[in-house]
Design a protein that fits this description.
Length: about 300
């Protein structure tokens, strides 16, 4: 049996990642991750890397929760994650507004990871949280008739109405995200799988919503299309939401299942509930250690 996540519907989206990222500090000593100056971007489909993407998010969360590594190591892990997959796009996933640009106010979701005390923010104040190092002449908005246009002093993708205008900003070199936002998201996914595995070993008499106050994918669009037969077309405006959907499909998959390796404790995709190890190496190491412990006793 193939150890691939089963995704229902036509799950496809375009996302951007830059070759290099760096950590920058604001005057308030906030750590942001940003594309490096001169770094080139590539466009890819996160759903084509769903297995690797999900396991890397959980691994990042595991290491952050463990408390065994320092700030510099965490920063390096976040940089490596961004180089592989890009930033999360939390500017779109943290508010109920889909367009954001052109709306005077934005309403933050109840499960946002921005750690903001405000539930409603001015559009300009909200956007400025994600471009803290951009100069006024580098990124600005202008109303042309009934339409808003985003001007960027760079050559990066524009979708010309096919997707929300805010994504033109997300995919620019000026767009940044705080490191602790990304780490918080990874920790939430890691904690969620831990609780899911606990509940899986308990005989429940009724359904339980796991981490209802923290785990809830927002701003998911879908439509129904027809080719040979009807199918679902999903629409995603952030990598964060794409990961949440991939994760949700995975934990609900009856063919494959997420488990923690008995030896290294890393999460892996198992073919069935009887599979205990992420690799033959871990299985052998576990058995060797088990034999040694028996011999000592």
């Amino acid at each position: 049996m193939d150890k691939n996540i089963t995704l229902t519907g036509n799950l496809r989206t375009e996302w951007i990642k830059y070759e290099e990222y760096e950590i920058k500090l604001t005057k308030e000593n906030e750590h942001y991750i940003c594309p490096k100056e001169g770094s080139k971007f590539t466009i890819y489909d996160p759903f084509e890397k769903s297995n690797e993407l999900l396991l890397d998010v959980i691994d990042l969360g595991d290491k952050a929760i463990s408390g065994e590594i320092g700030e510099e190591d965490i920063n390096n892990l976040v940089i490596e994650f961004a180089k592989k997959y890009g930033l999360l796009g939390v500017i779109t996933s943290s508010v109920y507004n889909r367009d954001i640009i052109g709306e005077s106010k934005v309403l933050l979701t109840s499960t946002n990871i921005l750690k903001s005390k405000d539930k409603i923010m001015d559009e300009d104040d909200y956007i400025s949280m994600f471009i803290p190092f951009a100069k006024q002449e580098e990124v600005y908005l202008r109303k042309l008739g009934k339409h808003m246009t985003l001007f960027k002093a760079e050559d990066s993708p524009k979708f010309y109405g096919k997707r929300p205008l805010i994504l033109d900003l997300v995919f620019s070199k000026y767009y940044c995200e705080r490191v602790d936002w990304i780490v918080e998201f990874a920790k939430n996914i890691s904690t969620h799988i831990n609780q899911t595995l606990v509940y899986k070993n308990i005989k429940l008499t009724e359904s339980v919503t796991i981490m209802a106050g923290k785990f809830k994918a927002e701003n998911i669009g879908l439509s129904v299309a027809v080719l040979d037969s009807p199918y679902i077309e999903w629409d995603f405006d952030s990598l964060k939401v794409a990961i949440e959907v991939i994760y949700s499909f995975t934990v609900a998959d009856s063919k494959n299942t997420l488990k923690r390796c008995e030896n290294c404790k890393k999460v892996f995709i198992a073919k069935n509930d009887n599979e205990k190890y992420c690799s033959k190496v871990c299985r052998n190491r576990y058995n060797v250690n088990k034999s040694r412990n028996k011999a000592k006793s």
